[in-house]
Amino acid sequence: MRTIFIIIVLVFVSFQFALAQNGLVIKKAKGKIELDVQMNEMDWQEAAIADSFAQFFPSDSVPAKAQTEIRMTYDEDNLYIFAKMLNLGPRKYVTPSLRRDFRGEANDVISIVLDTYADRNNAFLFGVNPFGVQREGLIANGGSVASSDTFSTSWDNVWYSKAQIYDDHWAVEIAIPFKTLRYKKDLNNWYINFYRFDSEYSEQSTWTPIPRNQFIINLAFTQQLIWDEPLQKTKTNISLIPYSIFRNSKNFETDTPTINDFDFGFDAKFGLGPAMTLDVTANPDFSQVEVDQQVTNLDRFEIFFPERRQFFLENADLFASFGIDGTRPFFSRRIGVTRDESTGQNLQNEIYGGIRLNGKLNKNLRLGVLNAQLKENENIDLASTNYLVAALQQRILSRSYLSATFINKQAFVDSIGGDFTFSPNTYNRTLGVDANLASNDNTWNGKLFYHQSFDETNSSSNYAFGGFLNYSTYKLESNLTGQSIGAGYNPEVGFVRRRNIFQLTPQVWYNYYPKKGDIQKHGPGISGDLIKNNISLDDLDWNLGLNYRFNYKSTAYLELSAEKQYTFLLNSFDPSGLNGLALTEGTDYEYSFFSATYRSDARKVFSYNLSTQLGEYFNGSLYNFAGTLTYRYQPLGFTSLNFAYNNIRLPDPYKDADLLLIGTRFDFTFTKNIFWTTFVQFNSQIQNVNLNSRIQWRFKPVSDIFLVYTDNFFAESQTESGGLVLPSIRFPRQRAIVLKLNYWLNL
Known about the structure:
With 747 residues, the chain is mainly beta. The chain is 3% helix and 53% strand. It has a 24-stranded antiparallel beta barrel. Strands 1, 2, 3, 4, 5, 6, 7, 8, 9, 10, 11, 12, 13 and 14 form a 14-stranded mixed β-sheet that branches. Strands 18-29 form a two-stranded antiparallel sheet. The model is unreliable at 10-21 (pLDDT under 50).
């Protein structure tokens, strides 16, 4: 592994070459700019124009069919953008609903990427669709890899826009307060790009040409925004976001009395100059957060559910992107959740408060600190616990950086019913160093990491190290991921699927680009996954897959796979997923199966995603059929049906299973400010029906009223002819209704 890492570093150093760039000059406005989408002001007439957009999808070697023109100007308070999206004639537009922070490559949208530190590593993204719906997000890690660490729409802030549809084009005018942005004072240039999704022509286009084997948000492909005078420090930026909440809840399983509770708390944001932000939260509440989408668990290991709480999502890349998927030293969902060892159930662990400091110390050095103090729980003898996460990120070369993190979980053992008392012997800590490497054209990108955990056990194998290397060209896409994890590696605030393993995961795709027809690209691929014992190097698991995929110009996608799997059981395991008779530890299984995935054209009013797996499964067989059906009643919303059916057949005396997971989602937007979402889920594996209904009224920017109703029922399974499992609701389990108000105050 050491030799491989040295080769990776040498490859990246050798590929740090510069790209020739043009730019766009931005001049200060002489008059007042009104957001009326008319472009009547003289400043718009005199502004430089970013045009001549190039196609990114389906091709990348021709001008865009639907061209775009963008102008920019500014004053003391705001950055202004006027975008004009031309068409080839009258047409209709696609949007999933009027809900903010929409995503999807089939929607019409213009997006502005602002790299305000000119480091090609982090950027802000602002987007507006023809119906005037906004979205904003943060781009991290250079926008060079497809993961949640790279792009997130969880960041919310105050900015303004207005859109208008005309016969032969649509236009949008945007005002972004400088107080909303973070940037380096006295810097005379930023990096920017603009991209447009167009549903009529199934086209994606960009101002800076981007190779179609890259990601459209890749910050390697940006141009300079040249200011006519360096930007100075913004005015003091302090925001207070208080909330109040009323809860009514009842636990029917424990038959405890109904609880009526009123509470309040607040968040606050302090702009410490133009490049640093301090966030403070006191008695935070997350009851308005959307519930997780349930899954059928046929895995031997813990399932990863993404973070959804706003306080932990904003700028999460600085804290949560250490390591690789499946091996993270920090996982924010560990904060606020504890485990009752007597029952094995997860319980909410309330938070007293927390702070988050993040931003730029200089152009190349980024800092993040997160600290949260959690409440004690006398029912399970849990002391108040402090969580501290610190991270530093130093830019090296042109698009690479070194990062270091320190994570500390510290108990206060005597705090139950008394004073806080520091306990030096009750702790869990992790130290880590990551190196993220990328060539200027992103042909090569990768990561190296080394992490070590510390606790009172003083284990000698408390390490994790590894990394990945991506190589991407038009014809060839390849990835190699490797890691070695010690048996004693124990980051209690992290997420680690497996320990005491050595793992290598290679993947290679070859692409063909037809000149005619409906297929944008297609090609074969081979994938593998080899997991060995970290000490003896005995085989634990391996997988070999032969794959073929088709990308269609309509945005549809098809992938076919034939796979061979080997599994050695270190612990007993019930493959039925129903806690029946388990396969014994120390046995091994080799089996083959076929899988397929298809995503339809998402531009259509009715769209669907389908997947299936059929073949051998341990000592039996598995037939899986899953998918999502979506009907869009544009522009007001959509209804979707999610389902997963697993037919498991095992030889006697093991247990067969017919597992059904089904969920319906109703998403209705009365206006751009009033949303209603209802989610109903049935999971036969855990015999539960969950109902979550939420009404949100955004009565002013980033200020909301939420009304949330949640119900859980015990659902006994009933099998009909053909093996289909249907729910029979017996009695309620838990029920709650929440009314919450939060208000954003700029001080």
